[in-house]
Amino acid sequence: MSCHEDNLSSRTYSRQIVFRVAYTTYDGEVTSSSPEVRHRGAAGTSVEADLGWALGVVFKRYAKQAAAALDDVPGGPRGYQVLATTIAEGPKRQLDLAAQLGIDRTVMTYLLDDLEKAGLVQRHPDPADRRARLIDPTELGRKTLCDLEARLAEAESDVLGNLDEGERLVFRTLLQRVALRANSVDPLHNACDVAEDEELL
Amino acid sequence: MSCHEDNLSSRTYSRQIVFRVAYTTYDGEVTSSSPEVRHRGAAGTSVEADLGWALGVVFKRYAKQAAAALDDVPGGPRGYQVLATTIAEGPKRQLDLAAQLGIDRTVMTYLLDDLEKAGLVQRHPDPADRRARLIDPTELGRKTLCDLEARLAEAESDVLGNLDEGERLVFRTLLQRVALRANSVDPLHNACDVAEDEELL
DNA sequence: TATTGTTATACTCTATAACTATA
DNA sequence: TATAGTTATAGAGTATAACAATA
Q: Looking at the predicted structure, is the pLDDT value of residue B162 above 80?
């Protein structure tokens, strides 16, 4: 573990072991190793610790909380997303919705089947194109979304539990900036309204 | 989207749409909706924006970068973890390693097969228990790890690309604190040396 | 009888491709 | 011919369970 002492121009690195950890991309599980920073000497600010590990743990915890919060929603997180998007942006065609959410169109079919069965959305024929179907939230869907959003807000707050108000603000701001850049460098889905990015930087 | 105006005692919420997004837990892909904050009025600090979305985007980007960096390592991120752990902590028994890394023991078998085939680690019989096998990194494994760590450091730095030095420090500190709490509330694997947490709080 | 590690099997979720009905 | 949506199939990756060797 001493191999980095030269190429990192190590101020603090030489005093501790920075133990990087990576993550599987296929299962969403954070299969990280143990907590990363082992202080060898007296020095070393601990924030040099592994970003990936922390990122993974936090993300995983949020994902778990969110999944629990959305337990009874057909399709789980994805069902929520469909609900949230159609309610926020109005009726959408199935394929557009799929593209926007990064969901495969074949998956979208099953997802909508379940959501429709649960009475949260409805498929309406698109008057402009008889091939297409417009996805419309129902009244129940709207009510459900409200509830879900409250639950998710709780999950968020729970994850940030040991930060005080000011720290949360700072953290969210910095995270948001990093995220916006990441998203613009390598966009997930649609570009939508990234135009507003500037005000976040 | 007006349903939260009362129960959130909304200062800023009433002025914008906070559009929460959740994530699938099974594929590690961030199937989020579009960027979240749409300013309706003039006010609203943008940091109120969706935590989950940002978290997911950043994590996903890091995971992608890390996966690319570990492209040629058998087992990818997991292979790296095995390497890093055995090198940092010395030879370990297969099952202990699996438990520590949160990898299923059946998966560990295949993973070690591949790592051994690549000449990065070796299985030695445990003199203390003839059932068990000790996983030992090879010289090649050690060299490889050095290289991989440099690559991962680059990935990290890339992800935090638009933060300056000071901001990175703040971000990492806060993230680390959130992560340590998340990990202690709901530990992934072993408890190891969480004793050192205090200095991070 | 319990445990280490291996192998075989089943299951989940995803990705590919073929099909229908419209355009 | 191309596109919206559906269905069927195959694939990757994981988890479960049964197994051999040892404790």
A: yes
Instruction: Report the protein residue whose CA lies nearest the C1' of nucleotide C3.
Output: B131
| pLDDT band, very low/low/confident/very high, at B4 (cuts 50, 70, 90) | low
Q: Residue B13 CA to D11 C1' — how many Å?
A: 45
Count the Cβ atoms, other than its own, within 10 Å of residue A179.
27
Q: Which residues from chain B sit within 8 angstroms of residue A182, using beta carbons?
A: 57-58, 60-61, 159
- Tokens coding A150: 């409250």
Q: Is the pLDDT confidence value at B175 over 60?
A: yes
Of residues B32, B153, B163, nearest to A178 (C-beta):
B163
Contact criterion met (CB < 8 Å) for B31 and A87: no
Q: Per the confidence metrics, is the pTM higher than 0.85?
A: no
The string of pLDDT tens digits covering residues B176-199 is 999 888 877 765 533 332 222 222
pLDDT of residue A185: 72
Q: Which of A48, A85, A172 sits opposite B33 (nearest CB)?
A: A85
Q: Which of B20, B35, B56 sits opposite A192 (nearest CB)?
A: B35
Alpha carbons within 13 angstroms on the beta-carbon side of residue B154 total: 12
Other C-beta atoms lying within 10 Å of the C-beta of residue A117? 9
Alpha-helix runs per DSSP H in chain B = 51-69, 77-89, 94-101, 105-117, 139-159, 165-185
CATH architecture of A77-145: Orthogonal Bundle (1.10)
Q: Give the domain ranges of chain A.
A: 1-57, 77-145, 160-201
Three-class SS state of B137: strand
Q: List the B124 CA – D22 C1' distance (angstroms).
A: 16
Element (H, E) at A154: helix A139-159
| Distance, CA of B165 to C1' of D6, in Å | 52
Angstrom distance (rounded) from CA A112 to CA A136: 11
- What are A171-201's pLDDT values in tens digits? 999 999 998 888 777 655 333 222 222 222 2
Cα(B21)–Cα(A90) distance, rounded to whole angstroms?
17
